[in-house]
Write a structure and sequence with these properties.
By secondary structure, the protein is of the alpha/beta class. The protein has twelve helices and 17 strands. It binds 4'-deoxy-4'-aminopyridoxal-5'-phosphate. Pfam families: Aminotran_3.
């Protein structure tokens, strides 16, 4: 039932693949208006790491609303904001030995990327950026400028920010030593490369096709930035908040980026919220220098605080995410080994997993076949050649098995 088709711009994308009207959702299941249920391996493109309507977040949200808690607080000090900041400090930053100031840059991932780029320019007094092949950072002009895929610019033309794409990990399949090009260009005054303010990187490229950078590569990048006086921005919008196991995806490399971008699952309830984390010595913002009406989403602060208390008071979620990720990898490896006609390559880290098809168009067909069987998932990668799954981290083992079985059947249906 595609009743809204004539009302909505053609610019929409995900729902085009799923021609039903969704109504309610709980945990890892959605229900449509006809009462059919779907298992969710999409999780709001990574915005629902704790599933739909998690009870431990819903209760405090309803209580907050029922006592007329402030919903829109912008820059005011509010109890909800204060509790979030204190909890974030106590549960996330301090136990990891991290020292960051928190900025609320606006409601979305693109907002935090914009603020990070602007801040890096202000700190360094330089304008240029270095980004990576296949990177994705959002749909605003600055974020698009550092997105390493010109197709994503959607005809928006010349980038606003001067950005030079460098090869991401494995771009040369190991045939060229890491950072050889980058360091040579940076140190060659005549190379024409503008002195960069910052490097912006994802530790696992999500939209780029679930490409995990190796730990050594991330450490090498951090060292290169330090050697050359360049700020390091980690865009953890999709891979943060536990998606790869640890709360921050860069923890695995033991690095401390200068600026960190967080959004998607930070509210825990699918409510818009973003953070820009800034090393205290780099917090050079003046009052009013990065404004925006929707920076104080107090209901999101309430659910975010509840999520940190519920899921990050110990390492249980991290451990179960890593174990579930291993299970998906094992299942994908089995599925790949069964395929006679198409080469399938499993990839990923934690519960960000992909299966790359040597015939790109089959990835979308596999997703469509999965939808017919009641499973939601999407594709990513430059040619949409990767079947991508981002289940809620709270998915039960039974639900995970159910979904993996459907993935196996759907891949077989399009490859045999
Ligand atoms: N950075 C990364 C790494 C992302 O994956 C995304 C969204 N897919 C964004 C930024 C942009 O976030 P938003 O869509 O909330 O603007």
């Amino acid at each position: 039932m595609t009743v809204f088709e004539d009302l909505e711009s053609e610019v929409r994308s995900y729902c085009r693949n799923w021609p039903v009207v969704f109504d309610t959702a709980r945990g890892s299941r959605l229900t449509d208006v006809d009462g059919r249920t779907y298992l969710d391996f999409f999780a709001g493109a990574g915005a629902l790491n704790y599933g739909h309507n998690p009870p431990a977040l819903k209760k405090p949200l309803l209580e907050y609303l029922s006592r007329d808690g402030i919903t829109h607080g912008l820059d005011m000090y509010t109890t909800a904001k204060g509790e979030f900041l204190r909890t974030f400090e106590d549960r996330i930053l301090r136990p990891r030995g991290l020292d960051y100031k928190v900025q609320f840059p606006g409601p979305t991932g693109a907002n935090t990327v914009e603020s990070a780029l602007k801040l890096a320019r202000k700190i360094s007094g330089r304008e240029a950026m270095i980004n990576f092949t296949n990177a994705f950072h959002g749909m605003t002009l600055g974020a698009l400028s550092v997105t390493g895929n010109s197709m994503k610019r959607g005809g928006a033309g010349i980038p606003l920010v001067h950005a030079t794409p460098m090869p991401y990990d494995n771009y040369f399949d190991g045939t060229v030593p890491d950072f050889l090009w980058m360091e040579k260009l940076l140190q060659d005054a005549g190379s024409g490369l503008n002195e960069p303010a910052a490097v912006i990187v994802e530790t696992v490229q999500g939209e780029g096709g679930i490409n995990p950078a190796r730990v050594e590569w991330l450490q090498g990048l951090d060292a290169l930035c330090k050697r050359n006086g360049i700020l390091l921005i980690v865009d953890d919008v999709q891979m943060g908040v536990g998606r790869t196991g640890p709360f921050f995806s860069f923890e695995i490399a033991g690095i401390q980026p200068d600026i960190v971008c967080i959004s998607k699952s930070i509210s825990g309830y699918g409510l818009p919220m973003a953070l820009t984390l800034i090393k205290p010595e780099h917090d050079v913002w003046g009052p009013g220098e990065h404004n925006g009406t929707f920076r104080g989403n107090n209901p999101a602060f309430v659910t975010a605080t509840a999520a940190l208390n519920e899921f990050w008071s110990d390492d249980a979620l991290e451990r179960s995410t890593l174990a579930k990720g291993e299970r998906v990898d094992q299942a994908f490896t089995e599925i790949a080994s069964r395929s006679q006609t198409v080469e399938l390559t499993p990839k990923g880290r934690g519960l960000a997993r992909g299966l790359q098809f040597s015939q790109p168009e089959l990835a979308a067909k596999a997703c469509a076949a999965a939808f017919e069987r009641g499973l939601l998932m999407e594709t990513s990668g430059p040619s949409d050649e990767v079947m991508k799954i981002l289940p809620a981290l709270t998915i039960t083992d039974d639900e995970l098995e159910e979904g993996l079985a459907i993935v196996g059947e759907s891949v077989a249906a399009v490859t045999e």
